[in-house]
Each structure stands twice: as C-alpha cells, then as structure tokens.
Amino acid sequence: xxxxxxxxxxxxxSHEKLITPSHMKSAVPxxxxxxxxxxxxxxxxxxxxxxxxDRLFFVVGPCSIHDPKAALEYANLLKQLAKRVADKxxxxxxxxxxxxxxxxxxxxLINDPHMDDSFHIEEGLKQARTLLNQINQLxxxxxxxxxxxxxxxxxxxxxxxxxxxxxxAESQTHRELASGLSMPIGFKNGTDGNISVAINAMKSxxxxxxxxxxxxxxxVSVFKTRGNPYSHVILRGGASNTNFDRQSILDCxxxxxxxxxxxxxxxxxxxxxxxxxxxxxxxxxTDGIQQILDGNHAITGFMIESHLHAGNQKLDxxxxxxxxxxxxxxxxxxxxxxxxxxEAYKKLKRS
Length: 351
What we know:
Mean pLDDT: 96
Strand content: 5-15%
CATH superfamily: Aldolase class I
Distance between the termini: 75 Å
Largest sheet: 8 strands, parallel, barrel
Low-confidence stretches: none
Shape: globular
Number of strands: 10
Number of helices: 11
Helix content: 25-40%
Strand order of the largest sheet: 1-2-3-4-5-8-9-10
CATH class: Alpha Beta
Structural class: alpha/beta
Radius of gyration: 20 Å
Order of helices and strands: HHHEHEHEHEHEHEEEHEHEH
C-alpha cells in the first residue's frame, strides 16, 4: 500500500464529493413555465435551422456571467427588445457560466462563484440553475457554451441552444458530448480561422457515439447517443483574419454542401471577426444583414457580446467591481446593443 500511495494521485491535493444532479434538481426544481419556454424555444431554433421559420436568431449577452443580479436586469431589457422584433428576430440570451482559459484565470461562475479562488462549485451550480430558471420564466431563451462534460447533467433542461467553442471544437470529448445534447448546437471555427475544425465536428456530432459520463444519480455510466441533427457552424474569425465577408460565407457553404451538412451559418460578431474591438461588432452585423438582403439564405443567426455597460474590468477584488461591466472580454453597452439590433430589424422589415 505504501508503494500505491507513491504512484496514485500524487498531484491531487484534495477532493470532495459534489451533490448529484438529481439532488441538485430537487434543491432547485425547474418551474413549469420555464420548462414550457425551453420546449417552445428549442422548437423555434429547429424550425429556423430547417427553413420552416424565416426569422434570424440572435445570441446576445455578456461574455460571461459573474453577477446574477446584473444578468437578470440585462435579461429583462433583452426580453422587452425581443417583443419589439419578434416577427423578424428570435432572441436568445447569452448565459455563459464557464470560461475556457488559454493559460490560467477566472473560470466562470460555476467554478468560482465568489471570484476569490474558493471554488464553491456546488453553490455555483445552484446560482446558475436559479438564474436559468428566472430567465426562462421571463419567456426568454438561454444559450451557453458546453465546456465541462459533466455540467449538462445539472443544467441542460434549462438551455435552448449551446455552442462548442473554438478551443474545444477539435476535442473528441466535446464532439461526443454534442452528439447527445438535446438542444441545437453550434460549432465555432478554430482559433486560427480554420473552418475544417467545425466541419469535422459537425460530421462527428451528427453520428452516434459511446462515451463515459455520469447519470443523474452521479454514477459513472456508458452513454450511447443518437447523434445531434441540429448542429451548425459558427464563424468567429481567427487570430489574424475575419470570415464574415461574402466570399468566406460562400466558401463555408461550399464546404458544408460537399460534406452533406446543414448549410446554415451563425456569424459571431465578436472575437476574431471584430478583432476584439467592441465597436466593430456593429459593422459585422451590418455586413451580414446586407448579405441577407442581397439574397444569402445561409446566414441564419448572429452572436453579440453585450452587457449593461461598455468595456471590461480586471478582477482584482470582487468588492471593487463596477456593476454591469464584464470581467472577461469587453462588451457593448445595452443602449448601443439595442440601437444596432433595431437598425438591423428596420432594414429587414423594409425589405
């Protein structure tokens, strides 16, 4: 046994048991009207991707959620806007609880809800689940990034749409996870701008897989998936290039067609497509809307990073944070977001 201690878990400092998904769902149950909203919202996204609903869908909201109170205030504003544009746009709030890090840094509300490296993950999951319940009760759909393969067991029934990020689209684990998720899912192109990563991810996710995970009782289980028929591409640009222009869209459509995949594209107005310059998000949206007006039927949605107030701030100490300002990527303020969305809506309305 002494030899085993020298071999096993030598780099694990500690571990603790986490509440099971079933116990979490008992502690924070889904409200009936929230569940109905998810069912309706998922069907709308499926109809849009199938071409049975000619609206565009927008995933709009903070780069990451760190303050549930500010997030709920934002959700109320977005819901009011959603009513005004409902005949042309279907609005989904961006509700990102987990953040992939290039090296180190704050990993999101679920991992560290107090933002002080205390890592109260159970509390983070409860806060996330509570906020998702509240957002859905407003009649607003919620979208997130599927990052940790275990987290969906705790939250998935409250999510309308999900994305696999540029850093994880090439991961076999995430492709297998996506094949079993119950909501439509978008794959981003690679951080270098390469769309083949997203194409291959779609091909993988539409097929059946077997993989290890945990069930609702927290038991390690072998899952067999059916494949996710509602996967699609998200173009987010690369480290040194954009890919929202006409030629890039046409090239992507051609690749999707050659691979017998759904020829529907979501444009991420942020990240590489804006060069991380928040003001350029409106230019990306304007260009995409013009392509649609010119007859492009592949563009089916947009992503926009937006918060109550503009910019971002460093996480030095939680008590010193400005309310409604991102602590990860910089975001547009609400007034600018509302203005650019209404301008896009009016252009499509006149066409």
